[in-house]
């Protein structure tokens, strides 16, 4: 984790269990920042609203799909959203409405963190939610990668405007 003073923005991606969508988004954004916008200093992390998989690596299907695109998720570990996240992160991005509602319920009153749906940054896709691929097949994991890549590029463009 970078020093709080050393970055211009901090982003937390959130899904239910933190083993499919949010770690994929974390990996994709980190990759795109390094390759397409290295001048931006953005702290990136991910978490889940549930504690089902705390300490586990991302789902192997997520890892495989990301690896095919040159993104390594193997070092990430699932964790649950905490109250401290609302103080630490500037932007908390939910993968779907259910997790956005859970975040709003968990959010301390004094929190200044902005809560949004991640796909708000890719409104050209015509989709508001990143679908959970957990019970799906390889194509579903590829779809998640496509969606989070588009939204990550939209987020980077937004951050560059504010830089």
Describe this structure in words.
The protein has 163 residues and is an alpha/beta fold. It has one domain: Rossmann fold (3-Layer(aba) Sandwich). The protein has helices spanning 21-36, 60-67, 83-88, 97-106, 138-162, and strands at residues 9-15, 42-48, 91-94, 114-117. Helix 1 (21-36) links the parallel strand 1 and strand 2. Helix 1 (21-36) crosses helix 5 (138-162) and helix 2 (60-67) packs across helix 5 (138-162). The longest helix has 25 residues, at 138-162. It is globular and about 40 Å long. It starts with 8 loop residues before the first strand and ends with a helix.
Keywords:
globular, 163 residues, disordered N terminus, 4-stranded parallel beta sheet, alpha/beta, 13% strand, Rossmann fold, 5 helices
């Amino acid at each position: 984790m970078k020093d709080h003073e050393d970055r211009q923005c901090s982003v937390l991606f959130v899904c239910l269990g933190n083993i499919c969508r949010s770690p994929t988004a974390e990996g994709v954004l980190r990759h795109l920042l390094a390759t397409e916008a290295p001048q931006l200093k953005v702290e990136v992390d991910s978490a889940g609203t549930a504690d089902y998989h705390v300490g586990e690596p991302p789902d192997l299907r997520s890892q495989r799909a990301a690896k095919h695109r040159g993104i390594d998720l193997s070092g990430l570990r699932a964790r649950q959203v905490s109250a401290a996240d609302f103080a630490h992160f500037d932007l908390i991005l939910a993968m779907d409405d259910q997790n956005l509602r859970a975040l709003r319920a968990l959010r301390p009153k004094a929190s200044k963190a902005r809560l949004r749906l991640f796909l708000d940054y890719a409104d050209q896709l015509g989709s508001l939610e990143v679908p959970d691929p957990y019970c799906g097949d390889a194509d579903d994991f590829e779809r998640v990668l496509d969606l989070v890549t588009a939204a990550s590029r939209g987020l980077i463009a937004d951050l560059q405007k504010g830089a």
